[in-house]
Write a structure and sequence with these properties.
Length: 318
C-alpha cells in the first residue's frame, strides 16, 4: 500500500452524516458533517454529499490517490451495496446507495453496516487494536453492533448478522417507534429510548426534578445528561435503569460469543460512569461463573464520530 493512498469515509446516521478524507495511518485529513434529514430522497442526499466532498477531493485527490469511498449506514448490506429497510432512516425500502454514489463520484464505493464500520475503525485504530474477538455496541439514535470473531467481522448468511439492538430484552415491553417490536434493547438504551424513559419517570415522580422544567416533547438524552451532572436524582435514576437493561443484554451477548471485550461507542456514552457503572454491575450479575470478570467493558478510544469514519474508510482497502 502506498503511503499516498487516501480513502473517503462516510458515516450515515439517522440524524447526521459525517464524512472525512483518511490516510492509511488512520489520520483524518479533513472532515465535515451535514444533517441526514435535510435530504428527502437518496438522490438528493448523493447530490448534497457530492457538493460537500468535491472541495476535499480537489484538495487531496491528486493523481488518482483517492482509492474509493467507504460508507457505514444503518442496515447497510456489504454484500448488496444497499441500505435495506432501515428503521431509523427516512429513506424507506431498499436503497442502492453504493451504486448511486459510485456513479456520481466516478470512484469505487463500498458499503457496510454503520456499527460494523465502527468496529473496523476500533479494530484498526482504537481500543480493539490487537484483539481477535470483541463486540462493538453503538449507542446513538439507535443501537447497533459489530461482532468480530477470530479477527473478522461476522456477516451471517445474508450479510445482516449483528442486529443486537433489535433483540428483545424485555418481552412485551416498550413498543419500538419504527419496527413495532416490543421490548427491544434499542427501545430502552438508544438516545431516543433514554428520552422516553425520562418522560415516563417524570410523569410518576413525586420528588422535585429539573426535568419538570421541560415539556415532554423537548426532553432529549442530552438534557437528561445535563440534569444528571447537576445532581438531579431522577435523571441519575434514568441512567441506572438504562444501564441495568444494557448490562443484562451485554451478559447475553457475552455468553453467545465469549468476546475479549465489549466496546461502547456513540453519543450516549458521554454519560460516562452514570451509564457504565450500572451496566457493568448488571452484566456481571447475569453471567455464568465461567464468564464472570473475564470480559472487559470499555469505552471507545477514538474521538467521537471518528470510529465510523475511519472504519468506513478501511472498507476501501479491504
Amino acid at each position: 500500500m502506498k503511503s499516498t493512498s487516501l480513502a473517503i469515509g462516510v458515516d450515515v446516521g439517522g440524524t447526521n452524516t459525517k464524512y472525512g478524507v483518511v490516510n492509511h495511518r488512520g489520520e483524518i485529513l479533513d472532515e465535515g458533517a451535514v444533517a441526514t434529514t435535510l435530504f428527502p430522497t437518496i438522490e438528493a442526499f448523493v447530490d448534497g454529499l457530492y457538493e460537500r466532498l468535491l472541495p476535499m477531493i480537489n484538495k487531496f485527490g491528486k493523481d488518482g490517490n483517492i482509492k474509493g469511498i467507504g460508507i457505514g449506514a444503518p442496515n447497510g448490506n456489504h454484500f448488496t451495496g444497499c441500505i435495506e429497510n432501515a428503521p431509523n432512516l427516512h429513506w424507506k425500502g431498499v436503497v442502492p446507495i453504493a451504486k448511486l454514489i459510485s456513479e456520481k463520484f466516478k470512484i469505487p464505493c463500498v458499503l457496510n453496516n454503520d456499527a460494523k464500520a465502527a468496529a473496523l475503525g476500533e479494530l484498526n485504530f482504537g481500543a480493539a487494536k490487537g484483539m481477535k474477538d470483541f463486540i462493538m455496541i453503538t449507542l446513538g439514535t439507535g443501537v447497533g453492533s459489530g461482532i468480530v470473531v477470530n479477527g473478522g467481522l461476522l456477516y451471517g448468511d445474508k450479510g445482516n448478522a449483528g442486529e443486537l439492538g433489535h433483540t428483545v430484552i424485555r418481552p412485551g415491553g416498550r413498543e419500538h417507534w419504527s419496527t413495532g417490536l416490543k421490548g427491544t434493547l434499542e427501545s430502552y438504551c438508544s438516545a431516543t429510548g433514554i428520552a422516553i424513559t425520562a418522560v415516563e419517570m417524570k410523569k410518576d415522580a413525586k420528588e422535585d426534578t429539573l426535568l419538570k422544567n421541560y415539556d415532554d416533547k423537548d426532553i432529549t438524552s442530552k438534557i437528561v445528561y445535563e440534569c444528571a451532572t447537576k445532581g438531579d436524582a431522577l435523571a441519575k435514576k434514568v441512567y441506572e435503569f438504562t444501564g441495568e437493561i444494557l448490562g443484562e443484554a451485554l451478559a447475553n451477548f457475552v455468553m453467545f460469543s465469549s468476546p475479549e471485550a465489549i466496546i461502547l461507542f456513540g453519543g450516549v456514552i458521554q454519560a460516562g460512569d452514570l451509564l457504565m457503572n450500572p451496566a457493568k454491575k448488571a452484566m456481571e450479575e447475569h453471567l455464568l461463573i465461567t464468564f464472570k470478570d473475564q470480559v472487559q467493558l470499555l469505552f471507545s478510544e477514538l474521538k467521537f464520530a471518528d470510529a465510523a469514519i475511519l472504519g468506513a474508510s478501511t472498507l476501501v482497502w479491504g
